[in-house]
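ok so I'm stuck.
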Amino acid sequence: MSAPAPAPAPAPFAWDRMMRLGLGVLRLPPDAFWAMSPAEFLRALEGAGVIAPGGPALGRDRLDALMRAHPDRTDNRGAEP
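replied:
not stuck anymore, here's the structure
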C-alpha cells in the first residue's frame, strides 16, 4: 500500500494585486490597509463597487483547506495571548 500523494501547494497569495487595489483603487493610507482584516478589505472592495457584493459563504471544506495551508504558529512570534 502506498502513501497518498501530497496535496498540491497552495498558490501564493496575490499581495501585489491586493496592494494595488487597497492603496491604488481604494486609496487607503498604508497604515489603514495593513490594519484591515481580510473581511474588512473585502467589504471595502464591495462598497467601492470593485467587486460584486455578497459572494457565497465560506464552506467548511474551504475553511479546513485554508487551516491546513496556513496553520497557527506554535512559537511566540504571533501567538494569540
